[in-house]
Amino acid sequence: MDLKEKLLSSFLVFEDKSDADNYLHEVRNDAIKTFEEKGFPTKKEEAWKYTSLNKVLKEDYSVFPKQENALDYSDIKKYFIHDIDTYKIVFIDGKYSSHLSQTTHEGIDVCLMSSALTKPKYRLIIENYFNKAATKDSLPSLNTAFSNEGAYIHIPKNKVVEKPIQIIHFSTGNESAILLQPRNLIVVEENSHVQIIERHQSLTDNPVLTNSVTEIFTKKRAIVDYYKVQNDNLNASLVDNTFIKQKQESIASVHTFTFGGKLTRNNLNFYQEGERIDSILKGVTIIGNKQHVDHNTLVHHIEPNCESHQDYKGIFGENATGVFNGKIIVEKEAQKTNAFQANNNILISDKATINTKPQLEIFADDVKCSHGCTIGQLDESAMFYMRSRGIPEKEAKALLMYAFSNNVLSSVKIPEIKQRITKIIANKLGVNIGFDL
Amino acid sequence: MLKIDNLHASVEDKSILRGINLEVKAGEVHAIMGPNGSGKSTLASVISGKEEYEVTKGNISFNGENIDELAAEERAHKGVFLSFQYPVEIPGVSVTNFIKTAINETRKAKGLEDMPAKDMLKLIRDKADLLEIDRKFLSRSLNEGFSGGEKKRNEIFQMAMLDPKLAILDETDSGLDIDALRIVANGVNKLKNEDNAVVVITHYQRLLDYIVPDFVHVLYNGRIVKSGGKELAHELEEKGYDWIKEEVDA
Questions:
Q1: CB contact residues (below 8 A), chain B span 98-127, against chain A
Q2: Is the pLDDT of residue B229 over 70?
Q3: Mutate to test the interface with B, among A379, A383, A385, A400 (most CBs of B within 10 A)
Q4: Contact A246, A218 (CB under 8 A)
Q5: Domains held by chain B: number
Q6: Which structural domain, as residue segments, surrounds residue A137?
Q7: Phi/psi class of residue A28: alpha, beta or left (left: φ > 0; alpha: ψ in -120 to 50)?
Q8: ipTM of the assembly?
Q9: In this structure, is residue A365 part of a structural domain?
Q10: Which one of A96, A128, A327, B43 has the fewest beta carbons within 10 angstroms of its own beta carbon?
Q11: Measured between alpha carbons, how far is A410 from A407 in angstroms, rounded to an integer?
Q12: How far apart are CA B164 and CA B155, in angstroms?
């Protein structure tokens, strides 16, 4: 039985056991139908031209983990940002771990999707927001069909949430292969500000496939800073589907740091539904081995006087392959749009590949849109310059690569995250130098 | 200290150095002059270990040890320093962090611990003052958007920080106005002592008014064709290089 069939039959069991109300029941049933019609995406589709899921889909994933697993905090502490106080929503093999989490209902809701989906007091929010930003593409639909657990964050008006929120998914390897489908809903009301960190971490070499959906709604003048730390091991694959709907004068930024994983696909979609909105998409990708990373972004400028800023840096070694596909749509009404997109890449091996494709669809006539992509190698003259000052080859390379990604890192607002990313980069490059540039 | 013996070097099969002999002892200042394309910068790069250049014959020894086969960083660790004619811009790496990394990597190669942050800071301040460098300058990205004078001053600042045994200054005077030239030369003179040596590579005599050489060599067509004292530099300034070319080509 292939994965699709397995999922379709699992859905019947899942819905049978679920105590969902009619609304949710209907949404899930529609979603499974969509998935059934579309199936998994293939390279025949333009949006998946350079990324094949075939190998990843061959594993015999278990869809519902059989047992609940516990983890000792001391064993996994290193995956948390632990030197500052944070809220934590932690999942182990898809199940919530109250032991490792620190949630709250005091003034703000930092809690679980499973509660939001089932408790009557959240019913209105669910009806207003759940599945209202996600597209009807096959993988988001598959996630919607099985939507059940994840993070639910609701920040009411005029709240600056002082502590960042960490959402961390662990997989223990107790199943020989596991499919995880976390579903997050984040609603940030007027004038509020929240910072969120998301990480997926597999603790063994058993295959993991995560098909995650995050819907974010930023209301008038709200600010959301979202950091995705993707440093999973080489048997873990991730399809991240993030949809952000912004209202006027809101600012949403997503930083995606990708160093690990076998196959990583980031579908990051912004929809600007108001004036004077700013959308910020930044990423650093450093991969090697046979890793594959695909950033697929969409910024949809619908209203006038908005901005978007995209800056993705990629460094590809060994047999790694990278894809950047950045789509910007500027509707006819969206005059005075400023949309910027940059994608710079360095190939450090002859066998590494990058496919980069800007895609601009502009229907307004008074806009500023720019895009640029570069593919290059490490600057030899810079290498000699550094080495002639006593910096060995490996360290000189590392310093250059770090410097290359530095302008993305410098826009990270939480110092502890910047330090952590810096440390991951140093480890990844096999050097022991502190880059406090 | 530096002994170059019948050195031949080429880049992409094009022969550039064709039998250089040069000996530089501790405490000495040597000037290497010559017309454009004579091989001056190549000589500097070959001594420092630039990989594009292949030594086809002869050898370079430094303090009695053959260094032809050493990587650029290993030569740097032994005390060879090259001030670049065109310092490379490295966006994203600050001057301070670059020099810290260079010093600590050099210490690491010698089996020493990292320099304590306090000492490093003091050293940076002292040397920045010596070169009349503004503190703000130190946090800028290395050479990025620097004026010609700032780039050269930054080179000598790094030389001051690394305290090399042999400093090769490749066209350090090019792009410098007279004030910057004075500051740079003054810095070099203050760093000069009995235990180190300086090789000044220049097209013009101007810099040699400030950094006074003990020996002047004329490089032409990949060979040192004439050597003398500092008066040779004046003669070249007056008469140009044509008489040398004629002498050699005859």
A1: 98-99, 101-106, 109
A2: yes
A3: A385
A4: yes
A5: 1
A6: 3-273
A7: alpha
A8: 0.96
A9: no
A10: A128
A11: 5
A12: 12
